[in-house]
């Protein structure tokens, strides 16, 4: 299985102004650093939860079709753009939503369910390729607990700029896990 992001989000869940208000910073000297922390906090929180927070496009490649429903990573899923496979003769085929499969976005992780079973595929890596759009939407659609966890990470990283110091072995605040755990996806493909 291979997963890659085709298009990144166009914005971050938090603005620079929101992060600076949390950090109680008035000046502009650290804007570049704080902007970097916002992106790092989003990516770290997405990694912990196994979700996409903002609209982005991913491509999943598989060696073949599963026996049952195909689970999609990075929920919530907005849309399956393309489901393509290589048939046993080596020819690319495209499956159509509604005719060949349904997308069930009500479950997490979301799943693609075949209407009449999965077709036979070539025995090769990347025989099935799925392009899909995922994420809550725009920044105002991201749940507030996720944003709060990001603010805690940003504050922690701003205060502790090194991974480890000799005087303090400070780790991320426990509240980060408590805020993100309800959004964590535990089941994978």
TrEMBL record:
It holds the Pfam family Phage_connect_1. This is Phage gp6-like head-tail connector protein. It comes from Marininema mesophilum.
């Amino acid at each position: 299985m291979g997963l890659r992001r085709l298009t990144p989000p166009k914005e971050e869940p938090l603005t620079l102004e929101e992060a600076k208000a949390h950090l109680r910073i008035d000046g502009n000297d650290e804007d570049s650093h704080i902007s970097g922390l916002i992106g790092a906090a989003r990516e770290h929180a997405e990694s912990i939860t196994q979700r996409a927070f903002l609209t982005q496009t991913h491509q999943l490649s598989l060696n073949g079709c599963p026996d049952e429903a195909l689970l999609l990573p990075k929920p919530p899923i907005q849309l399956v753009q393309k489901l393509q496979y290589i048939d046993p003769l080596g020819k690319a085929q495209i499956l159509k939503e509604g005719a060949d499969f349904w997308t069930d976005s009500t479950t997490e992780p979301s799943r693609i369910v075949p209407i009449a079973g999965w077709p036979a595929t070539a025995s090769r890596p990347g025989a099935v390729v799925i392009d899909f759009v995922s994420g809550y939407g725009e920044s105002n659609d991201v749940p507030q607990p996720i944003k709060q966890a990001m603010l805690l990470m940003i504050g922690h990283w701003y205060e502790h700029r090194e991974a480890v110091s000799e005087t303090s072995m400070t780790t991320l605040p426990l509240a980060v896990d408590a805020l993100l755990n309800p959004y964590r996806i535990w089941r994978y493909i």
